[in-house]
Amino acid sequence: MPVVIEDLVPPDHKVRAIWALTGRLDLSRFLDRIVSTEGEVGRMVWNPRLLVSIWIYAYSEQVSSARQIQRMMDYEPGFLWLAALGVVNHHSLSDFRVNYQAELDGLFAELLAVLEEAGFITLETVMQDGTKVRAQAGVDTFRRAKTLAERLQQARQFLAGMGDPREPAPEANARREAARKRSAREGVERLEQALEELEQVRAAKKTEEEKREARVSLTEPEARIMQHGDHALAPSYNVQISTDAEKKAVVGVHLTQCSSDSGALMPAVAVIEENLGRCPEQMVADGGYTNQANIEATAARNIDLIGSLGDQEKRRAAALKAAGIDPAFGAHLFILQENGSLRCAAGKALRYVRQSRKRERVYHQYQAQGSDCQQCRFQPHCCPKSPEKARTVSVLVSEPESVAAFRLKMEGAEAKQIYKRRGEVAEFPNLWIKSKLGLRKFRLRGIVKAGIEALWACLTYNAMQLIRLEKAREAGLPAAA
User: Which 3 state secondary structure label does DSSP give 333?
Assistant: First the structure.
């Protein structure tokens, strides 16, 4: 049956806009990888512009499987139009997605330059946020050191029993034997990597019991168990996304293996600088990033950091709950006396015992007499978990100047107004990428390949944002951020 390719999709279909956008970008870096040898028969090479367009369109349709794309190219109008009724096999699609990381980084930076030239990126204010995305590994693949060592020994013995990999296999089974040996060799390498990752996990543990119980995945050693917003625990990576506040374009993305965001702020600044050639003027982040190290590091780079030091009342309440102390007996309710002691609710004195430091904050510690607490009617409410049955109270005396100045700045109306926008801007790309693109679980294994997949998702997000913003501008409509 004759098919008019141009009639497959309407004029305003997004696949046409994606194709037009990729035509504006310099894809020569992808062409540099295509080589030929004189005198030898070559294979057909797909145009990188087509492959980039296919992947952007696929992610925009919540399709991240190369095999699924190949199947859809037989019937889905957008893919039919892009490939002019041709079919790109899944091997070519998969290899293109993961084998061009440096070129993809350059393409992402180039698209940011287009957004910046159009006035959609200013770097005046950048909002930082992290989101957990599940890894391919399952929870049941995590094992302790003993099991890993046993599996590694078995894998090495199996590989040794297959003979020298350099010896040619019989012609009839050459490809099959080569695949088996490659699979066995990769299994050994993966288990060796798992033991290396386990040492890193154990080094971060505090107690010997925690070190003994540490585990990593057999199939994806780089994945870490993280808690998600629905309180589920799953092997995941922490995707750090930096969003320009002007029109919510993503200006940087990188992955970490840590569920905490505290150490991810300055690496995010480095990624932004690499992509756009300069640092943001202002970074806005939540309490997970706001610590003394980040306050001082951003100040050294002349970056205005806006963030939350956390709700002091909530922190106190959480600490009291963990200690089993009734909120009516919180440390901030103890009264400092002229003689330098504290007075509790029962009228007893807590004497000063020592000075302590925690992250350059200075605390004075006071302790009650054990006999006073043991006979006190308030003991079940005041110090129920204390092994000495005596209450100890820590009072903050001083904190670093940088933190004190930051706290003072955040009490101002202007800083509060800026921080108020953080959730609206920073969490929008996270929601869009998970809901619109369907990236709730990585299809690729390992932090490097998962990072490539996250970059494809953010590239798609920015491409769709640019298309939308330019259409609104052409129509003379106000383009909401």
Answer: helix
